Amino acid sequence: MIVVLHPSADAAAAREIGSIARKAGLRSVPDDPAKPRRLALVGAAPDPGGALAAELEQRPDVAAVIRDEGPAPLASRHFRPEPAPVMVGPTSIGGGGPPVLAAGPCAVESRDQLLAVAHAAARAGASLLRGGAFKPRTSPYAFQGLGPEALRLLAEARRETGLPIVTEVLAPEQVELVAETADMLQIGARNMQNFALLAAAGAAGRPVMVKRGMHATLDEWLLAAEYLLASGAPGVVLCERGLRHFDSRTRNILDLAGALAVRELSHLPVIIDPSHATGRRDLVTPLALAGLAAGLDGVIVEVHPEPDAALSDGPQSLDLDALAAMADGIRGIGARLAAPASAVVTPGIQGWISSR
Amino acid sequence: MIVVLHPSADAAAAREIGSIARKAGLRSVPDDPAKPRRLALVGAAPDPGGALAAELEQRPDVAAVIRDEGPAPLASRHFRPEPAPVMVGPTSIGGGGPPVLAAGPCAVESRDQLLAVAHAAARAGASLLRGGAFKPRTSPYAFQGLGPEALRLLAEARRETGLPIVTEVLAPEQVELVAETADMLQIGARNMQNFALLAAAGAAGRPVMVKRGMHATLDEWLLAAEYLLASGAPGVVLCERGLRHFDSRTRNILDLAGALAVRELSHLPVIIDPSHATGRRDLVTPLALAGLAAGLDGVIVEVHPEPDAALSDGPQSLDLDALAAMADGIRGIGARLAAPASAVVTPGIQGWISSR
Amino acid sequence: MIVVLHPSADAAAAREIGSIARKAGLRSVPDDPAKPRRLALVGAAPDPGGALAAELEQRPDVAAVIRDEGPAPLASRHFRPEPAPVMVGPTSIGGGGPPVLAAGPCAVESRDQLLAVAHAAARAGASLLRGGAFKPRTSPYAFQGLGPEALRLLAEARRETGLPIVTEVLAPEQVELVAETADMLQIGARNMQNFALLAAAGAAGRPVMVKRGMHATLDEWLLAAEYLLASGAPGVVLCERGLRHFDSRTRNILDLAGALAVRELSHLPVIIDPSHATGRRDLVTPLALAGLAAGLDGVIVEVHPEPDAALSDGPQSLDLDALAAMADGIRGIGARLAAPASAVVTPGIQGWISSR
Amino acid sequence: MIVVLHPSADAAAAREIGSIARKAGLRSVPDDPAKPRRLALVGAAPDPGGALAAELEQRPDVAAVIRDEGPAPLASRHFRPEPAPVMVGPTSIGGGGPPVLAAGPCAVESRDQLLAVAHAAARAGASLLRGGAFKPRTSPYAFQGLGPEALRLLAEARRETGLPIVTEVLAPEQVELVAETADMLQIGARNMQNFALLAAAGAAGRPVMVKRGMHATLDEWLLAAEYLLASGAPGVVLCERGLRHFDSRTRNILDLAGALAVRELSHLPVIIDPSHATGRRDLVTPLALAGLAAGLDGVIVEVHPEPDAALSDGPQSLDLDALAAMADGIRGIGARLAAPASAVVTPGIQGWISSR
């Protein structure tokens, strides 16, 4: 259930309600630890007969109790009625702000490859750099990423461009290592219901981007976010990357309406990944523009200096010119991207970078 | 096979090749009857051993023979390398021109309802009026449309607004009646592979809009267009209206990438129907903007003066204010709609209307 | 609504209730015209406030009124609580009886081909002969069937083997012609929501087999049956033939659980078509056995004397030996097929044949 | 590539080829370490120009080199041309032997619950006991299993009934603990592409059952098996448990044809899970019979003494009587189950148990 505090309620009231909840086997999570306005009481134990809700409703410091908060209360609008931004390094995603562009290679392959893409991304107005260090590959024999060396290169690219980094984590035991470098952890589509990984990633102290499984309902996607939030993630970004379908001319089918519908249910930012959604370079920019025109919170695309020589995902990677053209297209539909980090590489940002 | 004529070839050459094709059991279809540049030779008979193709390649009036023209040659870019516009009354769709907006009620319910929507559509910049006279309904007991009376009302709305009319035809025996009034016939998604209907509609002398079946591959969709073209349709417009999927929070899933991919394969215009694609009024405008930002040739939406009182499709119908807001949104992303017919209700157009 | 008559109610009571229903804009359909036990009151008009139901419940000749009969009352168990057999010529399908085997070529190609298959089908224990006269083809250029000549050959095969015939009808204007020969009309998957065709086929006086669309929900399938029943079809057989899916190694995916679930909802017989469900000859017999082991009412399979030379559906057609082996397999799982018509080619049957 | 050794080749020849492969960056895996007949040379490095294959083909101890072994060579029929049994404790699965029945609760809830089900399973002819200790749950707040205590109870149930145990593992760090007790590890559908987990489970020294993801192609499923085999799994069993689909009346759709098709490609045993495939108790037995009639290698079902009180998956759990009835049904279609372990609780088996 969600407890809406009375405007006059203070922190002591929130603590007291938390204590009552604990006795009922529930955990109380505040929407804003500094100044709670709502508390989500979550846990396995139900509230049989609604006694707890009824008790809380009687309190003068409680304005209302929401009982139909759904299966994913922390991710829901019942808990936070307005879209809430997620901070990734200096970049703000969602919360009604301008959309973000995240760009970078599928996999980090070399210093030269990564820096070329990172600088092109910054020039194009991106405010996030993506790049895989550990790659989930369908075949056990395929290139699995450069691992720790890729993390070092990503940190260097961040120093050079000011762009914060999002990179994937594949197993609970990798989380700590990846979280040392990444500004945002990524959970891939195939791991969206890898619950052990969600629990570990949520506890790492970094925001997490969770891709929708290629078969997942919106409710399952929100529950993946709920795992992250219930484990303590300071922010969660939802990323729609296409669902499996029956036509072989495109790889997946982008569920734009689903991405919009999930944002109605949740305060979390929602972005799209048109690269994985189509598997075809020529369709990436049109779908990116589509997503921004529809009002979503950003796009994430794969970019490679020489797509045809890429070790993975070449057919769906933009080259550097195509990335610049996409940025032009974005301006063409009147969208203003979130101020890219590179434009604000001020002492403040430098301080942020050097303090890492 | 597709025969590319030499630039110097004249109509006699085209006739001669047609005659050779006929002897081989094939039919020759010119891309432009007045000035053929390409001929599609179509039919059940294959070209065993490629003898016919080899023979034609030797002719001085033949520049090239395309043998891998695919299953739908008339609909393909092999036949017409560039997007070709389809004229619907005074409205031009596709061919690289500005996108069109088609709007109107799901079903024609009354004179007042239809005229209110038609005028609002004209004001919003629509250049086509949609409206169902014969409705395909899942249940035999549901409202099946006003039939001939609806056709009369549609003709009246056209006289008042200048907007040409697209309306659905459900059975071969209805085609003649509907074609008397409609400027463009519509084949619904459930009839996309009703081959008898396709053959009849293609022969009616009107352009035809064919919706993609909720299960259809792009190739099957193109073959539906091929049925229409092979039967003589003067133009075919493809309309993506969403595929069936597994999540219950939206009704269907719009295949924007598929709509773009089919236009790469075909010279035919491709528009989207965000009303049926989502089943949710609040998602119609975002998806319409998405489709236009992606560069498609138009959108078709359902509008009703009082959606909650609609006899069909109320939940997905825009009201008149929402239609106007959508038009604002379209301008907001920098899209310029095709000049609406109402803006050019000049003597010429009046002549067109009165001559009908 | 469904009116359950009191056991003592007579035909006059049924007529009287029908008359009341008509005044309320509804049509009354008896489960058994000779001795009605239940009446379905169907139509567009709702029963506002439930006044009609309340009135009928008060009558002494009414035992109960069922108000939640669902969208397809005539097809439902509310109307007929027990599985009801459908008679196709001398063959009984469903109703709790033994399963039937229907076999025959995809398309009738020649007299020799058809008779060879028909005799093999009879020997294998089939009690229905299938064969296409009019073929729905994805391409306008493909072989479309022998048409009326095929109907003559089917009639000859019936005379020779005693097997009743099921063959497809594609358009309303074909219905009368096809119904002259066919013992059961077939509605193909792509026409499952061709409502004009359903209405025409239902009125032809023959039982109808309706295949499930490759995208259809169980409720939509039942509503297709409802169209047929509401138009007067003397019997409807449901046929599951596989749904479209994403894996390319089989053509469709057979929904065995859906076939079982629809039979829980409906009194209609349900059979499966493993040929279209898989598109692969080697998988036809295992799936046929699966369907019979699951307790369904029959299987329909495609058979050709030389599958690799078939004009259509060769890859999924059994040859004559494989058909015999399938019959052995059926015995191997302990299933007893419905007595094949050929075993009862008695004067009675001959009379039935000659009287046609 | 797969190297087919000459019948006269000895172990030294296999070692020598392995050494050559290593120099080319490949690993050589023998089909039978004791007496290799085929070697799979696997790894990321391609064989550019086919030089290695050409070299090996020249050797007198090599009968043939298969170059189109597909993406999952170890799982393929190219590596082992015949179905190969997998031993799970005393139970043999696949290899052309009689089918197996695996039964047990969704989750181990208590000693009484587990032992009641285990004894009923043994009586019904099961030769494997299933039961979840660690449960993957869509919600972070749902019951997640009894964990280590459940493993102790499973071991007790094995001692009492002789049935070997299959239980799920959710994270790499759980593998060692679970493998101490389990006779076969289970990878759930949602973890089918959790590659870190596959690698860890494959290295645990136990056979592994891998469920097909609800969105997975057959090739992806085989690649999951390949991960396990490449990590050293002594055996892999494939389990089809239904794919996500669009109809809400059943939970998933069982891909029986896919299960058969994957067995044509692979030597691995393939079983079905009708409980998860349908989500409906009433459909479990019909689908189990269907799978066995189709010739698959076994079924795994969920059983609970009181399904309506189950902490998870109650709606799809059989009760003890229904399990016995299913066993009757299996006999009714002429299937003979693999001799259940309980029938051979001889000193040998006791020795097997006590030696664990």
Report a brief summary of the structure.
The structure is a homotetramer of 356-residue chains. Chain A is an alpha/beta fold and 356 residues long. Helices cover 35% and strands 16% of the residues of chain A.
User: C-alpha Rg of chain A, in Å?
Assistant: 21 Å
- Total strands of chain A: 14
Helix fraction of chain A? 25-40%
Q: Largest beta sheet of chain A: what is the strand line-up? A: 13-12-11-10-9-8-7-14
Please describe what this structure looks like.
Four copies of one chain form a homotetramer. Mean pLDDT of chain A is 93; it is low at 342-356. In chain A, helix 3 (111-124) runs parallel beside helix 11 (320-332) and helix 6 packs across helix 7. Chain A has an eight-stranded parallel beta sheet with strand order 13-12-11-10-9-8-7-14. A four-stranded antiparallel beta sheet of chain A has the order 2-3-1-4, covered by helices on one side. Chain A has a two-stranded antiparallel sheet with strand order 5-6. Chain A has helices at residues 11-23, 51-57, 111-124, 148-161, 175-181, 195-202, 218-230, 256-265, 274-278, 281-293, 320-332, 347-354; strands at residues 2-5, 27-30, 38-42, 62-66, 86-88, 91-93, 100-104, 128-130, 165-168, 184-187, 208-211, 236-240, 270-272, 298-302. Chain A has 356 residues and is of the alpha/beta class. The first copy, chain A, is 35% helix and 16% strand. The B-C interface holds B 42-44, 71-72, 136-143, 170-174, 190-191, 193-197, 199, 213-215, 220, 223, 226-227, 230-231, 244 and C 42-44, 71-72, 136-143, 170-174, 190-191, 193-197, 199, 213-215, 220, 223, 226-227, 230-231, 244.
